[in-house]
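Sample 1 of the test manifest.
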Amino acid sequence: MAISGTSDDELAAIEATAVSYLTAFNRADAAAVVANYADDGVLMAPARPAVVGKDMLATVYPEVFEAVGFDMTYDIKEVVRISADWAFVRSATEGTETNKATGDVQPAQYQELFVLRRSTIGAWQIARYCTCKIAPMS
Amino acid sequence: MAISGTSDDELAAIEATAVSYLTAFNRADAAAVVANYADDGVLMAPARPAVVGKDMLATVYPEVFEAVGFDMTYDIKEVVRISADWAFVRSATEGTETNKATGDVQPAQYQELFVLRRSTIGAWQIARYCTCKIAPMS
C-alpha cells in the first residue's frame, strides 16, 4: 500500500473511515455504512444512477443488502491526503456475493475510489464514492 | 451542474480536461484519451483491475476500443476545486455500445468520477478516474 501525506495520525484516520465503510458494508450494516458519509455524500455504484445525500443513501443501502449478501475482503491500495481537508483512498475487494432471491453464490471482485473530506469537527467523511465491478460482469 | 471554487478560469480548465477525456473516448482516440492523464494516472473501470500509469493506460485503451464502439453523450454533474492543485468532476454518460465481434448494439449508461491534479506547468490532469456501469449489467 502506498501512503503519502504529512501526518501519520491523519492518514490513519483517513484510512480508518474507508475501512469502517468497507467492513460495515460487508456485515450489511446500513446505518453504519451511511454514518461514514458526509451529509452531501454521493454514491456512484453499478446498476443505479448516483445516490446523492444521506437521506437517499439511507434508503438505498438497505435495498442493496436485501437483494445481495456480500462476503468480501478488502485491500487498501493507497491513502493520499491532498490538502488539509481532503484525501482519497483507493481499494479493491474480492469474495463472494449471494443473490438472496435465488440463493446463487458467485465469486465477485470490485474496486473502490473514496474522496474524503475532513468535517469541521475533524472527522474524515466520505464526500464522493465510486465503485466498479471487476467480476462477474453478468 | 453544480460549480464551486474560487476561480472561474480554473474551473473551466478543470471541466475542459474531463470533457477532453470524454470526447476523445467517444471517438475512440486512445492517444488523446491517455494524454489527459498524469504520468501516474490510474483508471478504475468495469471488468478489469486498476490500470496504473501511462504506459499501461496506453496499452489498455486501444484494447477497449478494439472490442467496443461507443456512441455516448455526457452530462457534467459537478466540478469542484478542492485545493490549489486538486479538483474532482462527476459526470454521467449515456448512449449505445456496439460489440465489435458480434455487431450487437445496446443502450448503455455509465457514471464517472475524475480526481484531477494541476501539473507544475498548470495543466489539469487526471490523477485517478473511476467509472461504473449503470446499464446494461449483462
